[in-house]
Amino acid sequence: MATFHLLNFGCRASQADGAALKRQLLEAGWEEAARAEQSQIAVLNTCTVTATADAEVRQMIRRIHHANPRCRILVTGCYAQRAPGEIAQLPGVAWVVGNSHKHLIAEVLRNRQEPGVRSQESGESGQDKLVQIEEGRPISGASNPAGNDSGKGDYGGWAEGQPQMLVGEVGEEFHFAPVYPDDHTRPTLKVQDGCNARCSFCIIPQVRGRSRSLAPEKVVAQVRALEESGYQEVVLSGINLGSYGKDLDRRTTLLELLARILAETSLARVRLSSIEAMDISPRLIHLAAAEPRLAQHFHVPLQSGCDRILRLMNRRHWAAQYAERIQAIYEQIPHCGIGADVMVGFPGETELDHRASLRFIESLPFTYLHVFPYSARPGTPAATRPGQLNGRVIHERGREVRALIARKRRAFLEAQIGRTLSVLTLDEVYENMRAALSSNYLKVALPFSDLPPNTLLEVSVGRVDEGILYAYQQSPKG
């Protein structure tokens, strides 16, 4: 029996793709190995949102190849879509499969051919030229199941040579729609993929394609299936979740989808992964405030609190519009978990711009931030802008934002002492205590608890230490 190990990088939508891909390989007869270094095939499902994400993948490829030179590596996902030629040069890589063909990976491995056959051509300039591969056509004429039946060693007749590259334009199909949980407590259901926005720093629309949505009846059916499997919480994810439904023949909205899920299932908790400020309507905020089955948690990408930089980024909101949405959430849900993505060091960002962004962040009730240094992505408008900043300046600005949010988060955590929180136990242990996640996105340690993962209960918060809440009283939620 041939073995594989799958490694996921990046966002929740990518994690959902990886879970579905793992299930496809298992159903195709492959056996999962505990570690990539021990497997015959290592599958890396990648991210490319920053240069750091790319570097992490390259480092992992080298580590796997060094530990097990006979392991053949298949690289897929966003990095594979963006720079297949770059990845193909790394030792141990046998296949590079873009997002355009990620759904065919089980077929690629079932019909695997000798490396050296390339589905990518080189132009006169020496640059890689992507060619469309006919979807649904077998990748090779050979028939070689997952088991070793070739008589050519342990890997079905692979030979050293150039990797096979399968990369084309990302189509309009919604792939990996069935949800295959790879999480014991909080499975991710991808309901939207792709993005029509054109933020000047972002490569994702190029590697994920245009926005497309999973039909609402399919979403409801999958939520119901997860509920029947015993899950208490499902995270709805997408690349641009707020654009859900705009591409469907019968136009709908994320709000209408949530209403259907709440009306047609009994799932205990639904959580939104991330949503843009301009997609947060008063009706959505009101629903989150009134409906206990919706997690009291909004993650709203900001990037900058300075209007001048927002315009250079080609973002959809002004700072005042963003603040209006966040304040409305806070007014109706005072203890809501509110997070954002913040980018520091965008090309042309001055010290005055940075200070304006700091003041803006200080003025809003954020409970956490994901802070990113600007990373030039080849092919984006921002990558060629003048005024690229020095790395030391970017690092210092990031440090200042992190210090600011650390103070705000401490105050938010301390405000939870004495409150009763709805939490879900996780498949995690913190200092020999069961860990749980609250509706408002806080980690809670449960002393003296022998509750299994995936248990919903209410707890009273007794203290906070090192960023973790500690419960002193708990009761099952019925």
Strands, helices and their partners?
Blueprint: E1 3-8, H1 12-27, E2 31-32, E3 41-46, H2 51-67, E4 72-77, H3 78-82, H4 84-88, E5 93-98, H5 105-110, E6 121-122, E7 128-129, E8 164-166, E9 188-190, E10 192-193, H6 204-208, E11 212-213, H7 216-228, E12 233-237, H8 254-264, E13 269-272, H9 282-290, E14 297-299, H10 307-313, H11 319-332, E15 337-344, H12 351-363, E16 368-373, H13 391-414, E17 420-430, E18 433-438, E19 443-446, E20 456-465, E21 468-476
Parallel strand pairs: 1-2, 1-3, 3-4, 4-5, 5-8, 9-12, 12-13, 14-15, 15-16, 19-21
Antiparallel strand pairs: 6-7, 10-11, 17-18, 17-20, 18-19, 20-21
Tell me what you see in this structure:
The chain is α/β, with parallel strands linked by helices and 478 residues long. It folds into three domains: 3-166, Rossmann fold (3-Layer(aba) Sandwich); 188-412, tm_1862 like domain (pyruvate-formate lyase- activating enzyme), CATH 3.80.30; 420-476, OB fold (Dihydrolipoamide Acetyltransferase, E2P) (Beta Barrel). 30% of the residues lie in helices and 22% in strands. The protein has 13 helices and 21 strands. It has helices at residues 12-27, 51-67, 78-82, 84-88, 105-110, 204-208, 216-228, 254-264, 282-290, 307-313, 319-332, 351-363, 391-414, and strands spanning 3-8, 31-32, 41-46, 72-77, 93-98, 121-122, 128-129, 164-166, 188-190, 192-193, 212-213, 233-237, 269-272, 297-299, 337-344, 368-373, 420-430, 433-438, 443-446, 456-465, 468-476. It has a six-stranded parallel sheet with strand order 2-1-3-4-5-8, with helices on both faces. β6 (121-122) and β7 form a beta hairpin. α7 (216-228) packs parallel to α8, α9 runs parallel beside α11 and α12 runs parallel beside α13 (391-414). The protein is globular and about 60 Å long. The relative contact order is 0.09. The model is unreliable at 113-159 (pLDDT under 50).
